[in-house]
Design brief:
153 residues; mainly alpha; 2 strands; 68% helix
Length: 153
C-alpha cells in the first residue's frame, strides 16, 4: 500500500522497531490521539500526560497483537508520517508534528477522512482505530467519560 510512497523511508527508519513504535512514530500517534480524543482526555495536564503515556503503551501492545502483514503496513505508515513528505502529502499538515496545534491536526485528519484519495482515507481509518481501541480499553479513560466500568458478575 505505502511501498511506493514510503518504501525507501521505511528501509532507512522503520516506524516500528522490535514491534514497538519508534520515537518519531510515538510523537505522531500522540499528536493524532490528542486531536481524535479532544474532549475525552483528562483536562488536568498531569492526568492527560499520564493518560497519553498509558495509551501509547497500550497502542504498542495492540500493534504487537496484529498480524505481521498489518505490522509491516503500520511500520511503513509510521516511517512516512513523521517526514515532511508524509506529513504534508498524506496528512495535509504544514506545521511540524511538534508545533501543530490540536486543532490543526484535527482539521488535517478530517480532511484525510473526507478525501477522495483512498490512501488518505485508509490511513485515517487506521489511525482512528489505532487511537480509539487502545485508548478506550484503558480504565483511566472511563472516569472522564462517566463510565463506571464493567459490572461485577
Amino acid at each position: 500500500m505505502l511501498a511506493a510512497a514510503g518504501g525507501a523511508v521505511a528501509l532507512l527508519q522503520p516506524g516500528l522497531v522490535n514491534g514497538k513504535l519508534s520515537d518519531p512514530a510515538r510523537l505522531v500517534l500522540r499528536r493524532v490521539a490528542q486531536a481524535i480524543l479532544a474532549g475525552s482526555l483528562p483536562a488536568d495536564a498531569a492526568a492527560q500526560e499520564a493518560s497519553l503515556l498509558a495509551y501509547l503503551d497500550r497502542a504498542d501492545n495492540f500493534i504487537a497483537g496484529t498480524p505481521q502483514a498489518v505490522q509491516a503496513e503500520l511500520s511503513q505508515l509510521f516511517a512516512l508520517l513523521p517526514t515532511m513528505a508524509g506529513r504534508r502529502g498524506i496528512v495535509g499538515l504544514s506545521a511540524t508534528w511538534e508545533s501543530a496545534t490540536v486543532a490543526e491536526v484535527g482539521e488535517a485528519l478530517q480532511a484525510m477522512r473526507a478525501s477522495g484519495t483512498e490512501l488518505k482515507q485508509q490511513a485515517y481509518l487506521g489511525l482512528h482505530d489505532l487511537v480509539c481501541a487502545p485508548y478506550f480499553s484503558g480504565e483511566e479513560s472511563w472516569a472522564v467519560l462517566g463510565y463506571p466500568g464493567p459490572t461485577a458478575v
